[in-house]
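Good day; I would like, with your permission, to put a structural problem before you. What I wish to show you is a protein chain and, alongside it, a tokenised description of its three-dimensional fold. Here, with my thanks, is the record as I have it:
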Amino acid sequence: MIIFVSNQLATVTHLLKRANIVVWQHEQVGIVSYHEFASNTLERVHGIILEITQPTPEMHYLLAQAIILQKPTLCLYSKHNVPRAMLAHLSKKNIPRSILVKSYSERTLEQIVQAFLLTIDRTVSIAEAPTIKFTLRLTPALEQYLEWLARQHNVNKAEQMRALLKQIIAADKEYQCYLE
């Protein structure tokens, strides 16, 4: 997954990198103009995170491109510094549902970003991103059950397997004692 982050959000960039998400920022992509950036780069990203507390003309342009491309976009603003004009614009009826607007504090920022990432990909986790590849051969009956179970929970099979393993870990008293 690739996320574009406005350059004011170093904390968010750090959180995303912790989850093994590729983060692009406009100064890293080597763009000549915002028009070239939007047409060449924003089409390839899976989501956009903008800090709108102090709007700039470039931010307005990126937001317009996000609306046109219907890219999942998280617009964040500081809880203590509300950008009223920007919020008035973003609350209009013609703004697509792909644009989320949230106020944040240092305490809530990680939770807000995690919730946004889950709207793009239900398997992403900031807390602990899967990094180890594991191959498992299943019988057709086990695979059919796993497929059914994943559909019931609206996740992919890998995420369902991770959830089942987490349940087993939580219930395994012997393993919990081993960890202590």
Summary: Residues 117 and 124 are 7 Å apart (CA to CA). The chain is about 45% helix and 15% strand. The longest strand covers residues 73-78.
